[in-house]
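Working notes for the structural subgroup meeting. M.R. asked for a predicted model of this chain before we commit to crystallization trials. I am recording the input and output together here so anyone reviewing the notebook later can reproduce the run.

Input as submitted:
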Amino acid sequence: MKFKNNTMKKSLIILSTLAVMVGTGCKKGYLDINQNPNSPTSGNIDASLILPNALNVSAARATTTFGFAANWIGYWGPSGTYAPNTEESTYNITSNFQTGHWSGWYDNLTDYDNMEKKAASAGQSFYQGIAMLMKANGFMYLVDLYGNVPYSKAFDLANNITPAYDKGQDIYNDLFVKIEQAVDLIKNADVAKNPKIATSDIMFAGDKTLWRKFANTLRLKLLIHQSQISGFNPAAQIAKIAADGSGYLGAGQSASVNPGYLNDNNRQNPFWASYGFLVNGNSANDYYRANNYVLNIYKGNNDIRYQYFFAAAVNPSNPANPYVGVTYGTDPNTTFNSVRTSNMGPGVLKSVSQHQWLLTSVESMFLQAEAIQRGWLPGSAQAAYEAAVVESFSWLGISGAAATAAAYYNDPGNVISNYATVAAGTTDQKVKFIVNQKYLSLCGINNMEAWTDWRRLGIPANTAAFISVNPAKVSSTLPVRLKYPQAEYNYNAANVAAEGTVNQFTSYIFWDK
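Returned structure, recorded in token form:
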């Protein structure tokens, strides 16, 4: 089940057209040589059949396709066995860079759109609500990557084969509306009218409360992303979340999927298959390795998590120091090749059959801590922050997680973990303190969110310490977005041209203020 960007896919238009052809069925005789009564058709593909694969793809996309962001943000880097990706490490990206995100997310969203329509037609409000929530999640990723994207007419192919782009802010605003509607649908759903929900729902097994917690966490994430917009006021949305009453994803409540992963071709956990081991036991990843930037922070602050985010090198140059990183942008070198440097570790590579996370309890709890610190939610920001740190240690499987984490965040000399060191500071300083620890807690878990936090808050602050050392780099700061894929310029030229010239350093996402 190894999940890779597919640069051979074309555009939203082609993907959606194919989806409609498959989903609605072709006319008899059109490309139809034989008629097989056992072949799936629109009539016998219902929401319960679409959901498992769609959820699996969403989780895989969120966790195995953001290696470029991990490299940019100081988490990972190419081992000395490989030359750096020149386009990536110079930041001189083009419309051919990372195009799989556009086609991949729209492909996934097309499944959810078909599922939503089928579920609505069948009166299956639980499935309908799930589809709407997962569409909101996917469009959040697209906006955070590209800014303005096709949204309101994205799936109306009969009338909009070349859809116009909606403003990112407008999309975010409508996502709140859709999430609220989805929550109501799920809350009031008659489970008996949603057949197979307990087995088809490979994320929460038909648990209404957990889906509502996921919805609320997604709402909070959308709010947090907009925190730096001048005059932004989250009060109305926070009130709606509070009125729902189910709260947010908490300790031990990660949004994770598992359709029954096992050690067989195309059936392994996606993260394991991408960064762990192949079915035959050989390494699946000799490319991505620990970045010296984040590794040195862990080591320098007595943070044992580096032994869980990363693995000891197979054949380190110095056996006494088996956790070895790379510097992003360097040329190939045998002294830090794949066997001499650290791959992903046992905290993220637990087993071939492990659950595949989509949105972890760790991220949710840090979002809540930041919201409390900003005064958006009630409670103690320090207590919420410390609980999030404990959850990070626990999620990684560290023995005695609570005590080990407490020793870390209570260390009076540790200015990056001890809340007391910023207790007298400004709200902005405290927020950045919390988000810096969030950065250290999401290493390889959510590389996209770390890049988003850097864009909105400048955290981690010392960009010069993790910027690419490639001498051909065109900037001493990171890109703030991706460029629209070339397929859009080929097949949706007028609409993408209306967005103007896109610059990866100055064409900001609307929330990047």
